[in-house]
């Protein structure tokens, strides 16, 4: 009823409903081709949409096997279908197709180009991060080191939410570095069939990019705590210390098993470094002072700040979003369902105002 606004009477009744957008184009990345496909497909179907899945070129097999299983389970092929091919060849056709009513994309810089071409449709983008790990003087260093190993080297660092830069207070830097180096020595390096911790990165182009970041840092005075070693696409884990802001590794996302350390004199330096990055997906703070952690989290301009844990996506009902060039929109089940629907209103107009109590 409209009478809660001055000047309006009780002579209108609005029926608002959520209706499907139509066709959702879902584009997951190579590193989580099934999980991040499902996180797009499921809300789209729940909201009543049909889905066109564009599997990642370098992760298509598992995606297509999942689609086969879904069709075998009874999903109509017209409701859920896949289109394969290189993004460079079919990307423009898909993202600008007039029948596409929504795009959900997880990946890199390609997402920015998609946004510019897509037109006036809802868009959900997650485009990577340069996630800062801020370690304060009162932090539990054993906990911090454990999470840095897990957060920085799982999937060989090929995660948008991986630890991408450690900003540690100078007073505890040496102690933290020792713990990290000791734990890194226990990581196994090899191939997936041997269940190794560090396995090859996705492509030669990626490996060469990572090596370029490492060599730039060394040439500008950074310290390697391990010997640089690469065989093809297999890169041994590397901790790069004494990194300064004139080095590429301080700002660029390696997407591989190398982590830079910036030694800071004040927590504000770490906050400033986080906020100066064009990427702002996640970050984390290690401290025993929860009050300081909350204040610093508010000051760090990233989509999510983890306290006393490494950056991570999920659980899937949590909001997940990036700021600045890390993305548009918020993921998570509820947020994605809302994105993939539109509001339709029907207003009933009465000839006279309806009865009001009192």
Automatic annotation (TrEMBL):
Recorded catalytic activity of this chain's protein: D-glyceraldehyde 3-phosphate + NADP(+) + H2O = (2R)-3-phosphoglycerate + NADPH + 2 H(+)
The family database entries (Gene3D superfamilies) matched by this protein are listed as: Aldehyde Dehydrogenase, Chain A, domain 1 (3.40.605.10), Aldehyde Dehydrogenase, Chain A, domain 2 (3.40.309.10)
Q: What InterPro entries does the record point to?
A: Ald_DH/histidinol_DH, Ald_DH_C, Ald_DH_CS_CYS, Ald_DH_CS_GLU, Ald_DH_N, Aldehyde_DH_dom, ALDH-related_metabolic_enz
* Xref: Pfam families: Aldedh
Recorded GO molecular functions are:
glyceraldehyde-3-phosphate dehydrogenase (NADP+) (non-phosphorylating) activity; lactaldehyde dehydrogenase (NAD+) activity
The record's EC number reads 1.2.1.9
- Record keywords, A-Z: Oxidoreductase
- UniProt keyword Oxidoreductase, yes or no: yes
Catalytic site: 126
Keyword DNA damage set for record: no
Which residues are in coiled coils?
none
Top-level enzyme category: oxidoreductase
Q: Give the signal sequence positions.
A: none
> Which parts of the sequence belong to the Aldehyde dehydrogenase domain?
10-345
Which family is annotated? Belongs to the aldehyde dehydrogenase family.
Q: What is this protein called?
A: NADP-dependent glyceraldehyde-3-phosphate dehydrogenase
């Amino acid at each position: 009823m409209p009478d809660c606004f001055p000047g309006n009477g009780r002579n209108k009744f609005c029926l608002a409903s959520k209706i499907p957008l139509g066709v959702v184009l879902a584009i997951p990345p190579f590193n989580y081709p099934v999980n991040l496909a499902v996180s797009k497909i499921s809300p789209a179907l729940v909201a009543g949409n049909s889905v066109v899945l564009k599997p990642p070129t370098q992760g298509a097999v598992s995606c297509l096997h999942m689609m086969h299983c879904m069709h075998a389970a009874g999903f109509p092929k017209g409701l859920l279908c896949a289109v394969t091919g290189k993004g460079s060849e079919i990307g423009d056709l898909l993202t600008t197709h007039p029948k596409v009513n929504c795009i959900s994309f997880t990946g890199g810089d390609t997402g920015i180009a998609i946004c510019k071409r897509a037109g006036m449709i809802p868009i959900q983008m997650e485009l990577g991060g340069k996630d800062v790990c801020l370690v304060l003087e009162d932090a539990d260093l054993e906990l911090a080191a454990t999470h840095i190993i897990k957060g920085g080297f799982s999937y060989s660092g090929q995660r948008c939410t991986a630890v991408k830069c450690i900003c540690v207070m100078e007073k505890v830097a040496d102690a933290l570095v020792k713990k990290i180096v000791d734990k890194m020595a226990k990581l196994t390096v090899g191939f997936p069939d041997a269940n190794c911790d560090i396995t090859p990165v996705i492509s030669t182009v990626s490996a060469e990019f990572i090596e370029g970041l490492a060599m730039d840092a060394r040439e500008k005075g950074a310290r390697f705590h391990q010997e640089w070693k690469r065989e093809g696409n297999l890169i041994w884990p590397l901790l790069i210390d004494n990194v300064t802001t004139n080095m590429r590794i301080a700002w660029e996302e390696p997407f591989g098993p190398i982590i830079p350390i910036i030694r800071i004199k004040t927590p504000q330096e770490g906050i400033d470094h986080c906020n100066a990055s064009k990427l702002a997906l996640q970050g984390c703070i290690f401290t025993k002072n929860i009050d300081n952690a909350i204040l610093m989290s508010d000051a760090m301009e990233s989509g999510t700040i983890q306290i006393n844990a490494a950056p991570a996506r999920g659980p899937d009902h949590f909001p997940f979003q990036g700021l600045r060039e890390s993305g548009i929109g918020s993921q998570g089940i509820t947020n994605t369902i809302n994105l993939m629907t539109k509001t339709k209103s029907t207003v009933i107009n009465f000839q006279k105002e309806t009865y009001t109590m009192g």
